[in-house]
């Protein structure tokens, strides 16, 4: 593949430059340009070039659910590439262990080789079943205690990069350090634990919180809860900025408190689809009014995409573009320890999104491959 160039306002680790990115195959060969102020980027007509988006919490898309197996993960990866996600973690639901095992077997090929025209599937986010049955949210009622041998057996089926657990469950706190030593990133989530439980888990090596504010004990001024532990002590935490899961004011509070707060979609099979009924693991969910809910009205994942997450951060929350862009690319990459991702710099993977000044997608490249954007995703 011959070298190519992409011109525009380019977000580098040092800030925006007006210039060009030089690509050589699937890598960035060089970045050339003149520094420019962030506030000037959306005022002109030049394209905006950002690192490809990284989504660590993806259940589905285009009518396909990760838990259904088969070629679902390939379809989900293609759906999210259409919206600028160049890397994702395929995320499981709480379910009987044979169903989780079957899902992981189906995920393994996509983790080894990126689906054509799709996002890189870096591995698995095991969101269940090691959670508290009192904070299931939209998860089915198959929560169970974690056993290290079971985790290792699951990891042998497909690479687990991230696991969500409730630290207050008996035996879980003692397993955080061994999980970290084995290479798993540990997030606290779907938890009925206290502020003190959160601090203890962080001290043992947990490094993040799963969809902050949702499915965890809330902040009260005399009982800070798990939300209080995150706001007071976390460096990393997920947040779903669809403006339904979390009020904009709460998002702003988390942005002030958590240095590397990053965005996830928690997207479901309903993403990119018309209103109607869809699967979320064993649950049936309903898409309407821009959201996804169980029959009882409980929020059940989202239909958010990462390009919309970026627009919400900039145009609704009011973040500067460079700050917002890092929260959909750089910070999730750093949280996983994914070297070579989430930045535009020489020698790194050519994962790029090109947007107009309204932050609408114009181009997406994954490892240098141009994604053929369909009309509805532009």
UniProtKB/TrEMBL annotation:
Pfam families: Amidohydro_1 (PF01979)
Residues noted as binding substrate in the record, renumbered to the chain: 138, 214-215, 222, 245, 299-301
Domain Amidohydrolase-related, chain residue ranges per copy: 48-368
Binding locations of Zn(2+): 127, 190, 211
Keyword list, A-Z: Carbohydrate metabolism, Hydrolase, Metal-binding
UniProt cross-references to InterPro entries, sorted A to Z: Amidohydro-rel, GlcNAc_6-P_deAcase, Metal-dep_hydrolase_composite, Metal_Hydrolase
Gene Ontology terms: biological process: N-acetylglucosamine catabolic process
Cofactor: binding details: Binds 1 divalent metal cation per subunit.
Superkingdom field: Bacteria
Keyword check for Lipid metabolism: no
Active site location: 266 (proton donor/acceptor)
Cofactor(s) named in the record: a divalent metal cation
Gene3D superfamilies on file: Metal-dependent hydrolases, Urease, subunit C, domain 1
GO MF term list: metal ion binding; N-acetylglucosamine-6-phosphate deacetylase activity
Family to which the UniProt record says this protein belongs: Belongs to the metallo-dependent hydrolases superfamily. NagA family.
Designated name of the protein: N-acetylglucosamine-6-phosphate deacetylase
Species the sequence originates in: Acidovorax soli
């Amino acid at each position: 593949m011959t070298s190519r160039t992409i011109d525009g306002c380019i977000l580098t680790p040092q800030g925006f430059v007006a210039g060009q990115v030089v690509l050589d195959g699937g890598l960035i060969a060089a970045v050339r340009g003149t520094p420019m102020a962030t506030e000037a980027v959306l005022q002109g007509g030049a394209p905006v070039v950002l690192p490809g988006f990284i989504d660590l919490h993806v259940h589905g898309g285009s009518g396909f659910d990760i838990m259904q197996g088969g070629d679902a993960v390939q379809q989900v990866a293609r759906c999210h590439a259409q919206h600028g996600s160049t890397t994702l973690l395929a995320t499981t639901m709480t379910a009987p262990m044979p169903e989780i095992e079957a899902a992981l077997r189906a995920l393994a090929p996509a983790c080894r080789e990126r689906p054509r025209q799709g996002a890189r599937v870096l591995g698995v986010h095991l969101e269940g079943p090691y959670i508290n049955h009192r904070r299931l949210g939209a998860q089915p009622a198959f929560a169970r205690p974690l056993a290290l041998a079971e985790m290792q057996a699951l990891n042998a089926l497909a690479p687990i990069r991230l696991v969500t657990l409730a630290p207050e469950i008996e035996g879980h706190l003692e397993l955080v350090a061994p999980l970290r030593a084995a290479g798993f990133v540990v997030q606290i989530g779907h938890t009925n634990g206290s502020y003190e439980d959160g601090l203890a888990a962080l001290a043992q090596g947990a490094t993040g919180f799963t969809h902050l504010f949702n499915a965890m004990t809330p902040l009260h001024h005399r009982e800070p809860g798990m939300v209080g532990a995150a706001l007071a002590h976390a460096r990393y935490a997920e947040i779903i900025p669809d403006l339904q899961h979390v009020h904009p004011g709460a998002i702003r509070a988390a942005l002030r408190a958590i240095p590397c707060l990053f965005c996830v979609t928690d997207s479901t099979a309903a993403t990119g689809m018309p209103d109607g009924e869809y699967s979320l693991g064993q649950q049936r969910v309903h898409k309407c009014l821009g959201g996804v809910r169980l029959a009882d009205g409980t929020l059940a994942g989202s239909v958010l995409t990462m390009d919309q997450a970026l627009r919400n951060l900039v145009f609704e929350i009011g973040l500067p573009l460079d700050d917002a862009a890092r929260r959909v690319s750089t910070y999730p990459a750093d949280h996983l320890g994914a070297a070579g991702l989430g930045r535009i710099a020489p020698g790194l993977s050519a994962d790029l999104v090109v947007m107009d000044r309204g932050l609408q997608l114009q181009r997406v490249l994954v490892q240098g491959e141009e994604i053929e954007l369909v009309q509805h995703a532009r």
